[in-house]
From TrEMBL:
<feature type="domain" description="UVR">
    <location>
        <begin position="21"/>
        <end position="56"/>
    </location>
</feature>
<dbReference type="InterPro" id="IPR036876">
    <property type="entry name" value="UVR_dom_sf"/>
</dbReference>
<dbReference type="Pfam" id="PF02151">
    <property type="entry name" value="UVR"/>
</dbReference>
<dbReference type="InterPro" id="IPR001943">
    <property type="entry name" value="UVR_dom"/>
</dbReference>
<protein>
    <recommendedName>
        <fullName>UVR domain-containing protein</fullName>
    </recommendedName>
</protein>
Length: 83
């Protein structure tokens, strides 16, 4: 019974983390789109929102797995700006 409870709690935690990752990805996407559209005030606002989300302690482990993806998104934006 205790194992089932622990498993349910782990699943709930994983779902919560997945939601945060999805939210961070969406905010980052909107931030890059705003910057590309030269809407720097909105991009800065979204950047601050993303920072606040990432400062939550439980987000740290997931963020380390996503760094490569974030880096690639940044490089893609830089390439698009050069065109």
């Amino acid at each position: 019974i205790k194992a089932r409870k622990t498993a349910r709690e782990a699943i709930r935690f994983a779902d919560h983390e997945y939601d945060k990752v999805q939210l961070a990805s969406q905010i980052e996407k909107e931030m890059l789109e705003a910057a590309e559209a030269l809407d720097f005030e909105r991009a800065a606002f979204l950047r601050d929102q993303l920072r606040e989300l990432k400062e939550l302690p439980e987000f740290a482990l997931i963020e380390s797995r996503k760094k490569k993806r974030s880096y690639l998104a940044t490089k893609k934006l830089k390439r698009q700006r050069k065109k």
